Amino acid sequence: MSLVIKTDCSDIDWCQAAEIYHRIRMGERSPDLLEQAFQHSLATCVVFQDNQLIALGRAISDGIYQAVLCDIAVRPDHQRQGYGKRIVSNLMEQLDVDNIILFTSPGQMPFYQQFGFHPLKAGMGWFRHPEERRQGKVID
Question: How far apart are CA 56 and CA 5, in angstroms?
């Protein structure tokens, strides 16, 4: 079993990446727009096993004060094997900022707490499609 962890966006099959997001119910993603999003991110991490894309994530940031972890995803058949931890750890190592925030589903909060993340008492968000966020239980 060959495991490769990359921090650049070269040689990625963005159709495979979009399929991962679809399979874990993170929404439909255009491969072209997904590629652009990753290329415009400050930090990226992509995991391949035997040349197959199995996990990925990214962070956007000003590089000084704030960063946001985004799009952390692991193929369903590879979940609970430590790949999500590798993605988050790798992204956090790439960031040298005062604050890192993220969106997650309520059931995933304990996963991020092991990295030192804390639930926020106050926060707000603007969403292009708020009805989808309500269905996903991201907002009330």
Answer: 9
State both tokens at 105.
């589903």
Q: Give backbone dihedrals phi and psi of 7, rounded to 5 degrees, phi first.
A: -115, 20
* Residue 27 placed within a domain: yes
pLDDT digits (tens, 9 = 90+) for 110-124: 999 999 999 988 888
140 part of a folded domain = no
CATH code of residue 94? 3.40.630.30
Query: Tell me: the pLDDT tens digits for 11-34?
Result: 999 999 999 999 998 888 999 999
Cα within 13 Å of Cα(26), Cβ side: 21
Q: Find out whether 138 and 106 touch, Cβ atoms under 8 Å.
A: no
Domain range for 86: 3-135
Which structure tokens are listed for 125? 């968000």
Number of H helices, E strands in the chain: 5, 5
